[in-house]
Design goal:
Layout lengths: L1 H17 L24 H13 L5 H5 L14 E8 L4 E8 L4 E6 L7 H8 L6 E2 L7 E2 L1 H8 L3 H16 L3 E7 L1 H16 L5 E6 L7 H10 L3 E6 L25 E9 L2 E8 L31 E2 L2 E2 L11 E2 L1 H4 L2 E3 L5 E4 L18 E2 L1
Parallel strand pairs: 3-6, 6-7, 7-8, 8-9
Antiparallel strand pairs: 1-2, 1-15, 2-3, 4-5, 9-10, 11-12, 13-16, 14-15
Helix pairs in contact: 5-7
Length: about 375
């Protein structure tokens, strides 16, 4: 077992060393040949959205649906969930609701629910660009990232809830967020909202998101959803995966812009966080991907702990169990299931939000 661990470390070092050469510039041509202004970073909005990206991990569906969970306060207090979607078969979860303080519909997707985040990270090294993105010449993505949103119960549930919100609140902004794998799904959702529903006012902000497609896809995404921010944290390993190889710019994964890199400077107790807004390449070598000669980088991109906390907010599951959920029978009455047992809990946004005594001893059934 110990030898296997050393082998994995050696392979990882070789991958980063191979990807530390000078970057080749790629020009991508496709139908949407328009120039868009890069997204503007809003620190206050980021501090709010990271709490939504954290809350969606909660397994107590009663507290999540009624927005009374331990992560459902502070900057997100008063949020009203319209629809909570749980794809039980694939262990996926997301919600759609309205934040009146932001005057926006907020959509959040949960990240990986693997028992071992280490195993999931190791698996990211070997994910291949294996399907063409529909309708875009040369654009490729990984089928796992693509199907997690497009071929599950999440997509119809989200689109239905967005239409519900629009009927009540009109054409307010739609903000999509998520952490880790949830960030990948948020990106595909933002693109889908623009293309399928024709929504014009769509904003995407993700945290610790992996790469999801090649350079052609990244260029296309930036032109369709220009108001997009990817927040990366210090040495977080996940934004560096799947690997990016400079020598194969058309065949390798490539991030879309715009990255905002969080890193700490100072000594001892005099430490504060810098929020660096990166360039429009998606792979800014002066941000989280920066490399110094011989790969002696101040940013090695090797930290799982940096992946599990953004702006001091805990990301990931509230407990170690995988795909476990708790639900009060009274909330279950608002839900429906499909043939695979996937669950959608929804309410009419024009009616008052459900009120439950979530402090009582009976927390409902565990699934």
């Amino acid at each position: 077992m110990e030898r296997r661990g050393y082998l994995i470390i050696a392979i990882i070092i070789c991958l980063f060393a191979f990807s530390s050469c000078r970057e080749l510039k790629v020009k991508v041509k496709h139908r949407h040949n328009q120039h868009h202004q890069l997204a503007t970073y809003n620190h206050t909005l980021a501090r709010i959205l990271v709490q939504y990206a954290s809350a969606v991990y909660m397994s107590d569906l009663t507290e999540l649906f009624t927005w009374t969970c331990s992560r459902c306060d502070g900057l997100t207090e008063g949020f009203e969930v319209i629809e909570l979607i749980v794809d039980v078969k694939r262990c996926l979860q997301g919600f759609v609701g309205v934040a009146t303080d932001l005057n926006a519909t907020v959509i959040a997707f949960r990240g990986t629910q693997e028992r071992s985040i280490q195993n999931w990270v190791e698996d990211l090294y070997w994910k291949q660009l294996d399907i063409d993105y529909p309708g875009v010449d040369g654009a490729m993505v990984h089928h796992g990232f693509y199907t997690a949103y497009h071929n599950t119960s999440l997509r119809p549930g989200v689109l239905n809830a967005v239409q519900k919100a629009k009927e009540i609140y009109g054409n307010i902004k739609i903000i999509v967020t998520g952490h880790s794998m949830g960030g990948a799904m948020a990106a595909f959702c933002g693109l889908d909202l623009r293309l399928s529903l024709g929504e014009k006012n769509v904003q995407v902000m993700t945290f610790g998101q992996p790469r999801i497609g090649n350079a052609a896809f990244a260029s296309y995404f930036n032109q369709i959803v220009p108001d997009t921010i990817r927040v990366t944290n210090d040495h977080d390993i996940v934004p560096h995966l799947p690997p990016y190889y400079y020598y194969f710019p058309q065949k390798t994964y490539h991030h879309f812009p715009r990255e905002v890199w969080l890193y700490n400077i100072g000594f001892g107790s005099l430490i504060y966080t810098v929020e660096k807004v990166c360039d429009g390449s998606g792979e800014d070598p002066t941000c989280s991907r920066q490399v110094i000669a011989f790969n002696l980088s101040s940013v090695s991109g090797n930290s799982i702990s940096d992946h599990l906390a953004y702006f001091g907010v805990q990301m990931g599951c509230d407990e170690s169990s995988s795909c476990r959920m708790v639900m009060d029978p009274r909330v279950a009455a608002y839900g429906r299931t499909d043939l695979d047992g996937n669950l959608i809990i929804s309410r009419d946004p024009s009616t008052p939000i459900l009120k439950l005594d979530t402090d009582r001893g009976d927390k409902g059934s565990s699934v």
